[in-house]
Amino acid sequence: MIDLTVNGSAVSLDVGVDTPVLWVLRDHLGLMGTKFGCGAGLCGACTIHLDGVATRSCILPIAAVAGRQLTTIEGLSESADHPLQRAWVEHNVPQCGYCQSGQLMSAAALLSENKQPSETEIDQAMSGNICRCGTYPRIKRAIQQVAVGHYDPQDGGQS
Ligand code: FES
Ligand code: FES
Question: According to the model, what pLDDT value does residue 124 have?
Fold first, then answer.
């Protein structure tokens, strides 16, 4: 059995040690928000947080996360009201939407360690997340709006 914490809940899993975390999330835990894109760590569609750090779940064996904390898009906020999620809605960021949970998880990891990233820092942090629909300008605008506090109620932004 492998024990870990997923979105704040303790789980015990009886799976092969080499099973990719992405398969465990989707097939064993029913958390379908994390997407399969390339399966090779290249596109970012499967991005989750491992102990708060943006991580590709498609190439991560479950044995490597024993005892650690995973967060998926389902656990990013309680009511899909993370500032980035609100900004994503207001800026109509998604097109087909397939890449967007990975985009949001990468953006959330960036802002958790750097609340006011420069444009270059945003580009660097988001460079591993591919969007076939080309939503990059809207993604960047949404991140920048969150970074300046536009979605922070404490700063007088939108609630
Ligand atoms: S599916 Fe994991 S990086 Fe593409
Ligand atoms: S919104 Fe379609 S792949 Fe990004």
Answer: 97
Structure confidence by residue, pLDDT tens digits, 97-109: 999 999 999 999 9
Taking a C-beta distance cutoff of 8 angstroms, is the pair 28, 15 a contact? yes
- Which of the listed residues 46, 88, 100, 106 should we mutate to test ligand 2's pocket, taking the one with most ligand atoms within 8 A of CB? 100
Distance 131 CA to ligand 2 centre (A): 5
Atom index in ligand 2 nearest the CA of residue 133 equals 2
Which atom belonging to ligand 1 lies closest to the Cα atom of 39?
1
Give residue-wise pLDDT tens across range 143-154.
999 999 988 765
DSSP 35: P
The whole-angstrom separation of Cα 106 and Cα 53 is: 8
Domains and CATH numbers, the chain: 2-74 (3.10.20.30), 83-147 (1.10.150.120)
- Cα R_g (the chain), whole angstroms: 16
In this prediction, residue 126 carries a pLDDT of 98
- Segments in the chain below pLDDT 70: 153-159
Q: How many helices (H) and strands (E) does the chain have?
A: 5, 5
